[in-house]
Amino acid sequence: MTLPVCIWCGEPVHPEEQARDFSNPIHYECGVRSIVGSVGHIHGRCSCFEKDPAKQEDDPPGLTTREAARVATVLFYRLRDRGAAWSPDKCSPNPMRFIRAKS
Ligand SMILES: [Zn+2]
Ligand SMILES: [Zn+2]
User: Fold this and answer.
1) What distance in angstroms lies between residue 46's CA and the mean position of ligand 2's atoms?
2) Which is more confident, 1 or 75?
């Protein structure tokens, strides 16, 4: 059986890894990342906020696309659980829509 390929990271998606609320094959963490943005974006240090290219931050270097998605997901939920204010989002149309993993 051939597994579908994640539209975000390009890796195979096992059925239990599929994010809800998406009609395309996509991992849970890749789905979250596609909405909340990169680590740099969550911190307000991406090109949306920082005009100086030398100071811009996006996904952490040295990670695969899926690993970077996991880091952004963990960071996002950690900040949310602390009640951190969400910075105005200029990348994602609907950042406050949370996706649950398929249980
Ligand atoms: Zn993925
Ligand atoms: Zn951004």
Assistant:
1) 5
2) 75
Question: 61-65 contacts: CB < 8 A, separation 24 or more?
Answer: 64/9, 64/11, 65/8, 65/9, 65/10, 65/30
pLDDT tens digit sequence for 71-86: 999 888 888 777 665 5
26 C-alpha vs ligand 1 centroid, how far in Å?
Answer: 5
Contacts 24+ apart (CB under 8 A), 59-63: none
DSSP annotation string for 1-20: -PPPBPTTT-SB--GGGBBT
